[in-house]
Design brief:
Helices cover 72% and strands 0% of the residues. With 266 residues, it is mainly α.
């Protein structure tokens, strides 16, 4: 007996919760792009930092963690794409892919936070769409390596994934530190009038605080959870799975092959 119209199975509570989180990610992305946040990001540097953090860390993390990837790999056109990607990841498992995703993420993150890029975002608001596309895309690539939700296979052991996440977080923190400790005007496109609104120093310090906070909110729980799993297991479960596969293959090759038998012609 089918569980729904047209034989579709009803969604589980877990899938509904995941889809709710995906809805939250979509709403956050829209809020970051549209007014008033989009407009305020052109007036205050710290709002632009919030927008950057949503694009680079919050939305990619929510999508990768919340998406029902296992359910999506079971059928349909979109689901078939997920299944092919998962199969490709199982065939090509190397730490190099994780390093490449980290390099792409850092290139996008640093590239959009250098003063010329920030000033260009202030002068040409339409560039925020390009910023969102590149940061969310690079963030998804990185978080797929960090979390590796089923059915995607982990291509790095847990310590390697922790190192990738820590580097991504610390690079953001270094940018925040350099900005917060500086008394120079990093972003000339923002016009600060003495005695009216936020001062230059206050705006830049708030910007540094937002960069630090949003990176911590995304990466610290990931690093803590990965550390707990690694310490509890004692060994890397990904490496243990690969070891079991190798043992099974060797066992099959070691078994003597039975000669083919056939009926004798009388």
């Amino acid at each position: 007996m089918s569980g729904g119209v047209g034989g579709r199975r009803p969604r589980s509570t877990e899938d509904r919760g995941r889809l709710s989180l995906l809805g939250v990610a979509t709403v956050l992305l829209a809020l970051a792009l549209l007014p008033p946040v989009g407009s305020l990001a052109r007036r205050y540097a710290f709002v632009g930092a919030v927008q950057f953090g949503v694009f680079a860390t919050i939305v990619p993390a929510l999508v990768v963690v919340a998406a029902p990837w296992r359910t999506a790999a079971r059928g349909g056109q979109v689901h078939a794409v997920v299944a092919r990607l998962a199969a490709r990841r199982r065939r090509h498992r190397s730490v190099g892919f994780g390093v490449a995703s980290l390099v792409a993420y850092l290139a996008a993150a640093v590239g959009w936070r250098v003063p010329p890029s920030v000033d260009a975002l202030v002068r040409v608001p339409a560039l925020s769409v390009l910023e969102a596309v590149t940061l969310v895309g690079a963030g998804l690539l990185l978080w797929l390596e960090l979390v590796a939700p089923e059915p995607f296979a982990a291509r790095c052991p847990i310590p390697g994934r922790m190192a990738l996440g820590a580097v991504a977080m610390w690079v953001t923190w270094i940018m925040a530190y350099l900005l917060g400790m500086s008394h120079a005007d990093w972003f000339p496109a923002y016009h600060h009038v003495a005695g009216a609104g936020l001062s230059l120093i206050a705006d830049q310090q708030l910007t540094a605080g937002m960069l630090w906070l949003l990176a911590a909110v995304a990466f610290v729980p990931l690093l803590f959870a990965s550390l707990v799993v690694w310490l509890r297991s004692g060994d890397d479960p990904d490496e243990e799975l690969r070891r079991l596969v190798r043992v099974e293959r060797r066992r099959r090759w070691a078994e003597p092959r039975r000669p083919a038998t056939g009926r004798r012609l009388s």
